[in-house]
Amino acid sequence: MSVLPPGLTQETFDQALAEFRAAIGPQWVFTSDADRASYLDPFDIGDQDDHASSAALAPSGVEDCRKILEIANRYRVPLWPISMGKNLAYGTAAPEMRGSVILDLKRMNRILEIDEEMGTAVVEPGVSFFDFKAELDRRQSGLWMSGPSHSWGSVIGNALEHGVGYTPYGQHAETICGMEVMLADGSLVRTGLGAVEGTREWQAYRWPFGPGLDGMFTQSNFGIVTKMGLCLMPEPEGMAGVSIRIPDRGDFRALIDTLRPLRMTDVINAPYTIANGWRQITGGRVRSEVWDGPGAISRERMEELLAERGQGWWSVIFNLFDSPAGLDLRLEKIRQAFSQNIPGATIEVRRWEQGQPKESWMRQDVSLAPLGVVDWGGNPGGHSDFGPIVAPLGDRAEEVYAIIERRFLEYGKDPWIGMFGISSRALIFVADMFYTRTDAEETERCRRLFRQLCADMTGIGIGLYRTHLRFMDDAVAMHGWGDHALPKLNNRIKAALDPNGILAPGKQGIGSWNDKEEEGQ
Amino acid sequence: MRPERPNRFLWLAAPVLAAATPAAVQSASEAARSPETIFASRCAYCHDDGGWGTRALARRMPEGEAALLDRVNLPPAYTAFVVRRGIGAMPQFTPAELTDEELEALANWLEDRN
Ligand SMILES: Cc1cc2nc3c(=O)[nH]c(=O)nc-3n(C[C@H](O)[C@H](O)[C@H](O)COP(=O)(O)OP(=O)(O)OC[C@H]3O[C@@H](n4cnc5c(N)ncnc54)[C@H](O)[C@@H]3O)c2cc1C
């Protein structure tokens, strides 16, 4: 069954495909059903076919990209660039607009530079976290990678999507230092000091003479990122893994207000993760083993399961990075703050020093194990999340938490909620929905829940960190200030840079070819 | 967050990952990669003894056959289909990260060694 880009006939699409084959080699133009199926979203919140691609192209380098763009502009073929295409939970490799052609940059996978002295690297899109870690290990590098919890994705795609890791360099978009970008017309630019011919400073400083444009190409469809510079963390002298149990639900506000100053003064020098009760009862089993009632697992049952495991209503985990003496000072401050504000909290600490073998709590190994959580809800399981960005103020966080928990219970979903202290001044909520992907009623309910929460958050002035493809328009609509001035500006930039609108139409709600998605509300 | 499980392919994975490194010019998808390499560096993360794939398959496979390497029978055509299309919650692999030729060799290797 063939899928076509909107507005193209089979005949013109076939002509475009013939030109793509001639340009990059027929073996790198994928059109069979099996190949196209491999670009569907395995965790989609509904029918995967809603986001089916019409073909996929795998260029070998920037010259191939330029040829592809020239053809795509002529035929008005929409392209959806991906790096590893493992954006699991947010759409994986699938395009926002059905019928788009995937531009799969996996084959462009060189690690161009790892600079031990400067603590920087330059990579191409197809470099996965597996590849990158293996290369650092092979070189016995003194630099560490900051990766997300599963390693299948790409260094570039993850940073572009504002991905999160668990080291002091865990705000991955913040580690970007210079990019090479191909615009829709095939022109190639280098951002930052990369614009200076023969420079040694491309990765040294992000702010060139004039506007800093790196951010313009993140969560964006203004160009194809073909290279990226990244800052890497030097191996620390030591690490401490801290896990804190808070028995009392009522201590949430105090918890947030205790963590904020510690994070802001860099005592806690990497992102922390807070988990609520429901988020702590999952490991090692599937949901049907603990709950056969209708709707969400009740609070009473959840608390019973927590007690069985000896866990508190809230848990906090984070790692500290410093010399052994520095770690002692940090831990002392943390213990003091908790004993003052939340006397019921218990704190466990593990330690590591340079030279000792690494342990799993350090999160320095590549892994796919975290993906196993998807099995929790049903089979074939899927999961996606609602991710508001919230100020780490006790009152504010409590207000948002209460709304999300209430709505999840109302819609019959377990409120499986994590909160990531990603920077000193931002808490990102990740409220996960688990579902059986083929259960139309359940996925429809999840979509309604998501949209309900968008409305709730808009009402209190909150926006989102990232979303699944299905909610791009909902998320962008939350930016209403000044009669949607920012989304309008994005669309004006899009029109100027990509007048045919061929690059990732609809991504982040920018340059959409359709009117607003009319989907089961 | 979860404790890592001992990976019985580590002995394979270590030298192999280094070999598959996209150093300098050669792109990994085009360098010839052996089935063992691919299995150790991609599949084993989920299909080793304690992996998620093995745990999921333990729910529906006969005792002792949950790990793919312990299978009595695993038709190559089935493996190829599963890897491209995904199964249950196992995400699929694209032809750019695992070519048709590599997949065929991998599927045959899995069948032969059983
Ligand atoms: C269980 C689980 C745990 C997870 N944990 C984390 C976590 O801890 N931290 C985290 O950050 N994420 C996490 N994720 C989400 C996600 O899977 C990862 O962020 C993953 O790294 C993203 O995939 P990728 O790197 O292959 O990006 P891709 O899929 O390659 O890219 C994502 C998007 O960015 C754009 N893009 C990519 N490359 C380019 C380019 N070169 N030019 C222009 N645009 C481009 C495209 O729109 C693309 O769709 C998790 C998901 C699951 C299911």
Polypeptide structure, described:
The complex is a heterodimer of chains A (521) and B (114). With 521 residues, chain A is α+β, with helices and mostly antiparallel strands. Chain A folds into 4 domains: 10-107, Uridine Diphospho-n-acetylenolpyruvylglucosamine Reductase, domain 2, CATH 3.30.43.10; 111-234, Uridine Diphospho-n-acetylenolpyruvylglucosamine Reductase, domain 3; 238-473, FAD-linked oxidases, C-terminal domain (Vanillyl-alcohol Oxidase, Chain A, domain 3, 3-Layer(aba) Sandwich), CATH 3.40.462.10; 478-518, Vanillyl-alcohol Oxidase, Chain A, domain 4. Helix content of chain A is 29%, strand content 19%. Chain A has 12 helices and 19 strands. Chain A has helices at residues 10-24, 33-37, 62-75, 129-138, 155-160, 252-264, 299-309, 324-341, 394-410, 440-459, 472-477, 481-497, and strands at residues 29-30, 55-57, 79-82, 101-104, 111-115, 120-123, 143-144, 176-182, 188-190, 224-231, 233-234, 238-246, 272-275, 314-322, 346-353, 381-386, 389-390, 416-423, 426-436. Chain A is globular. With 114 residues, chain B is mainly alpha-helical. In chain B, 46% of the residues lie in helices and 0% in strands. Chain B has 5 helices and no strands. In chain B, helix 1 packs across helix 2, helix 2 (35-47) crosses helix 5 (100-112) and helix 4 packs across helix 5. The longest helix of chain B has 13 residues, at 35-47. The complex binds flavin-adenine dinucleotide. Residues 81-89, 105, 125, 148-150, 153-154, 156-158, 160-161, 163-164, 224-225, 370-371, 373, 504, 507 of chain A line the site of flavin-adenine dinucleotide (FAD).
